[in-house]
Amino acid sequence: MIRRFARPYARAIMDVAGSPATANDVRLRLEQFDAQRRKSVELQDLYANPGIENDVKLKITEQIAQRISIPPGLAINILGVLIQNHRINDLGAITDALAQYVNIALQIAVADVRTAHELDQDEQNQLRQTLEKKLGKKVELRLATDPALLGGFVAQVGSEIWDASVAGKINKFRASLA
To answer: DSSP of the chain, one letter per residue?
Structure first.
């Protein structure tokens, strides 16, 4: 569920980016920064502290961005706006909303996939291609591991669920015997 305040920021990023592809690139850079911010309680506290000047927060943000190879440009400018508006600790919600807008514009379906083990790149590509054939559009995979599946995968796109797991097949077989 996207928080209400995040949508206007996401819409503004889409407008400023000029194209869905550019907005998606910015989203990936913002997610990269947010991952670093979430790892550090000190950074979260720094951004939440109103006693620390925004200029100091922006300098620290620029140093972190440089360290993780985010080039100067739109992503850094957006981070600056979020710092000014005291929304930097809400970056995750904003990137989630932005991802929705980008996926709609680029006709990309998001598949939440649970697998019994981590998939290597070839397995991910095969799964993506299979889902793209079924859906008739590009697919972005969000992967999670679930050892309870024993083998295979469960994919959910919107309200559709494909259960190709060993546990799912066992349950179907058990139900057919009853």
So the answer is: ---TTHHHHHHHHHHHH-SHHHHHHHHHHHHHHHHHHHH-HHHHHHHH-TTS-HHHHHHHHHHHHHHTT--SSHHHHHHHHHHHTT-GGGHHHHHHHHHHHHHHHTTEEEEEEEESS---HHHHHHHHHHHHHHHTSEEEEEEEE-GGG-SSEEEEETTEEEE--HHHHHHHHHHHH-
